[in-house]
Write a structure and sequence with these properties.
This protein is mainly alpha-helical and about 80 residues long. The chain contains one helix and three strands, in the order βββα.
Length: about 80
């Protein structure tokens, strides 16, 4: 399967004579780009938050007792 650009990527829509680039009008490009930027910013924020939480847990080291270090039956 070969991908090829149209001979002229800038065309006019016959029904309403709007200028299009690769099948989408300028407003459609703007809304699509805005939605993708918002999506990727949300994903980046989520992963940065997860990284911050994991670094906090790892650097503190005392959030959870390590298995085998505490026994309710032994005097410590």
């Amino acid at each position: 399967m070969k991908f090829s650009m149209p001979a002229n990527p800038v065309q006019r829509r016959a029904s309403d004579n709007k200028l299009m680039f690769v099948g989408m009008t300028g407003f459609e490009w703007l809304t699509t780009t805005t939605a993708l930027v918002i999506l990727y910013c949300a994903l980046a924020g989520f992963f940065i938050g997860m990284l911050a939480v994991s670094k906090k847990i790892r650097n503190d080291g005392n959030t959870f007792p390590r298995p085998g270090t505490h026994s309710p039956f032994r005097d410590e």
